[in-house]
Predict the 3D structure of the following.
Amino acid sequence: MVKRRTDSCRRRVSMCLVAMCGSLLAIAQVPADSVNGKPHEMSGVTVTERRLPVSLTAGAPVQRMEKAELERMGALDVSDAVRHFSGVSVKDYGGIGGMKTVSVRSLGAQHTAVSYDGVAVGDCQSGQVDISRFSLDNVSALTLTIGQGDDIFQPAKALASAGVLSIETGKPDFGAASFRLAARVKSGSFGLANPSLFWAVRLGGKAGLSFYGDYLRADGIYPFEYVNGTRRIKAKRNNSDIQAYRGEANFYASLGDGQDLRAKLYLFHSERGLPGSVIYDNPYAAERLHGRNYFGQLNYEVSFSPKWKLKAAGKFNYVWNRDTDKEAAGMRDDRFRQTETYLTATLWSEPLRGLSFSLAQDFAYNDLSTTLSNCQYPERYTVLTALSAQYWHPVFRITASLLNTYITENVRTGTAADDRQRLSPAVSLSWRPLPSTAWRLRASYKDIFRMPTFNDLYYRLIGNTRLRPECTRQWNVGTTWGGRVSPVVETLDVSVDAYYNKVKDKIVAVPTMFVWKMSNVGEVETVGVDINVSAGIRVAKSMRLGLSGAYNFMQAEDVTDRDSKLWRNQIAYTPRHSGSGSLTWETPWVDVAYNVVFASERYRMPQNSADNRIRPYSDHSLSAFRTFRWGRHALRLQADALNLGGKNYEIVRFYPMPGRNYKFTVTYYL
Amino acid sequence: MKNYWYKTALAAVVLGLCAACNDDDEETLPPTLPPSETTHGCYVLNTGNWGGNDATIQYFDAENFSIGGDLFGSANGTELGDLGQDLCLYGSKLYATVSGSSKLEVMDRDCKVIKTIPLRADDGTPVEPRYMTACDGCVYFTAYDGTVSRLDTATLEITGKVVVGAYPEALTNANGKLYVNLSDYNFDGTGTSVAVVDLASLTKTKEINVKQNPYTQCFTGDDGYVYVVSNGNYAGTPGMPEDQWVYGTLQRIDPSTDRVEDVCRATYAANHGCKMYVLYSEYYLPETKRAFVLDLNTGEKTDFIDLDGFSSLNAIGVNPTTGDVYVADAPYGANSTVRVYDAQGNLKNTFEAGYSTSKFVFVTE
């Protein structure tokens, strides 16, 4: 499904596709406004028919948000935007510095891979990626694929999880200019200040260089109310400040003979306070988390002929964290360091028209060292091989893949987990029963697993090297339709999907006498429906209305043991009903966007008792923005009012969310 | 078609608004039984989940076998707090150490708060109180700042404090002394002793070596000995050589000589007269799982109950009036179940308690 997408943004997609045929340096990082298809954006490109978005043509649920939508949402980081995707729950510990992880269709955050410009961002220690560390400023598109995607020209790692959130950063569109500049300042409630600078320069005809840097700080001291029994208590979050620097450098080049090269260097430094959960009668919080993340990646792609393509990439990732806390027993100071070295190559060929194959080979090395007592210094070698095939016909497309995983681990002390090998199949089908219409049916199946993380296996005391992988099987059937209904309703996109997931050998920490141990207990059965609708309506000649809505039903039940108290209980932190909606109103004077996300009640524990219940919530926001232009210059002003209801609702129990807050953004483009 | 989909989209938005409208409904507290109406029974302490603010105290009427709801919540209108670590009945008052909330609650027997004592170190850090013992008009409690504090039960003021060592846990008193478990909190082999504190002067006099990780159990038996359970080092951990295994062990200290001797392997123990009820299990050695009664005079062990139906044993207590044995099972993700057995191990009753039931405090008078 696609939300908050208007025509101009669709046009941009088309434009990109047109442009990409000619040159690599295509996608617009320029004034990315969504407004009324401003003439300069359209120059030289004639769009005769709307190209259907990938969300309607894919064989499995794919959702995509482009730059314009992302900006319109008033979102600060990637997680704020991802919340609007269908079938997704973002675990948000509140505040700007709070950790945010994304789970797809109740499978858990560890089943969602996050990729940044085509290369996976891993975390071997916890297995879940905190997506709050990615700024939206520099992002050109977010794509969420659930199950088996249609693109088979991918690294094997892209097939190795139940869902993939892919973050793409923009490549500058120079047009006639020799450089591009975007300077932005965001400011808002709770001491938020976030200046950023983007600068790109053309190096000759076929190469480019870009830099992005930003600084973010916030006090995060926001007031909240909570209820203890019959008493209503007002308090303020403390120790939830954040300070972060981020920098990125990109180099692109077309080397000729169909060869393209991209290189990226990324650095991220942060220091933040962890306010912890709200504890009755004890507001003390002094835990600090320092983080450093550096990575470099190199992507190379070559087309030998229209029938043969190869791509390869390499990445080195370094993550360092320091976690300190001042406790009654003394100062705690723990450090964690992990690295990942990742290499991948994928060969693609289309021997017959419509029939294509790919073979992907990945290798990854991970290691972790900590200052905790009994650290075992684990290291992991992962070898992934994926063989995929796709057959495309104007009426249908079928994609199948088989992934082989081999993992071996070493530890310096103690015993390492056994080697593991698994085969994981996936298949998807998209069918257009009436070739004259845009109505499609789709079905997909994927069998995949997540490895126990280093914490699961080796963490002091609770780690368990005997763990088996947590396996998931996903089935999805759906239908999509997209088209023009009338001269007024210019676009209408609809998708409806029903799915069934089964999780086996769920890895959870289980109390066993006085020791907690990671264990493979638990089976979860999920039945769900995702409905997405979006429409573009032309109200007047220069006035347009965009409307979109998503509704998700998710029944995710514990089916481990018929005699247990948890039998057929909805699993923790999974709303049965959730969704989002948006309304955008584009006028020649100002554009206004209204967004809402909502979720029904959830439970903080596996047992669905009244005292575990977390109240339903809805979060409304309103944004207004306008771009002014003169000559080659452009200035964009945006104001956002977030969580209009002002309630300190909870996504995670005892982590209240900030109430009503505001944000202002000024961006200058050259 | 078009109208239908518009409606669906609108419905989604409206649904969100509705969700916003009805999220203010208050939940009602379950009914409770005032303990003054029963002649004997026990308070049940449910520690709750870390960060969950869900510690509760219930009352179990042992004559009519009926369990009440959250006594503290209904008596005071607020919840007890985060991690109810220990509960102590002394004289006419109840004392609760609430570790996460870092406070001591002093209550009457209906759990109505008499005084709340926030516990902070001089630099403002919460000291996280742990376990209690009471004698001679005072309640003594351990805390994670490495101390034992003395609370005068008449004035309800803290009248003294002594540093005993890192991460003190359960403690007891015998022969004019306090015996304090110094746990192996960091699992680095440093927690292997019981600190001895002279009650009169409130000074630490020595440390007695015991097996690794003396933790939640330290009590004075009916025979006057001090009983300490050390949880060991998780014997059977893959990669650990067998000669380094330290099993969970019940030890006893003679308070006149402070000499230690091993009694038997144990994870939880409760004493009644000459009988010691023992629950034992090692995570990595599942075949060791056993419940038995140890005759302290003869040393004879008799099998007690079948542990197969339990998922995670969390507490054991003996009703001193009837000799009934209470065993709490705290399964993953759900509230605890308490099973009540007679002295021979026949199941008499089962009741549902709160989260992580950790202590039974029996009312005998």
